Amino acid sequence: MAVTLNHTIVPATDHRAAARFLASVMGLPELPPAGRNGHFAPVRVNDTLTLDFMAVPDPEGHHLAFDVDPETFDGILARLRSAGIPYGNDPAHPDNHRIDHPLCPRGLFFVDADRNLYEVMSPA
User: Fold this and answer.
1) Is residue 25 part of a domain?
2) What is the CATH number of the domain that holds 113?
3) DSSP-derived 3-state class of residue 26
4) Average pLDDT of each block of 10 consecutive residues along the chain (124 residues)?
5) Taking every annotated instance into account, which residue ranges of this chain make up the domain VOC (predicted)?
6) Do residues 45 and 72 both lie within one domain?
7) What pLDDT does residue 94 have?
8) pLDDT value for 7
9) Containing structural domain, residue 16
């Protein structure tokens, strides 16, 4: 059997708000609460992967990077702009509104309220 990542935990002060934020920016579906007591707020990334947001008292930011096709990238960029969410081409400056990523033709970073750094990369 091939190894695939099933889920990963994303720490957040308000797990449901954090899941809603990422799902809305990325155009991904939020799933119903999961876990024994519904303590996860999952977001479906693809057929095999969910990001399970979990409330913690003092979350440390994580870095999650996504490869997307050009059409998906355009949708994410449009949603960021429409919502007035800062983005940028450098993880140290995720608010410079540039998409000329150093590792791919187009890419960007954005941050959520809990300092989770999201990276989106497109081949064109």
Assistant:
1) yes
2) 3.10.180.10
3) helix
4) 93 97 98 93 97 96 97 98 98 97 96 97 96
5) 4-123
6) no
7) 96
8) 96
9) 7-55
pLDDT at res. 1: 76
In a domain, 2, yes or no: no
66: closest CA among 14, 117, 19? 117
From 27, 116, 19, 17, select the one nearest 77 (Cα to Cα): 27
Based on the number of CB atoms within 10 Å of its own CB, is 14 exposed (0-12), middle (13-18) or buried (19 or more)?
Answer: middle
Pairing of strands 7-12, 50-55: parallel
- The edge-to-edge listing of strands for the beta sheet with 106-111 is 63-67, 117-122, 106-111
Q: Into how many domains does the chain fold?
A: 2
Structure tokens that stand for 28 in this block: 């991904």
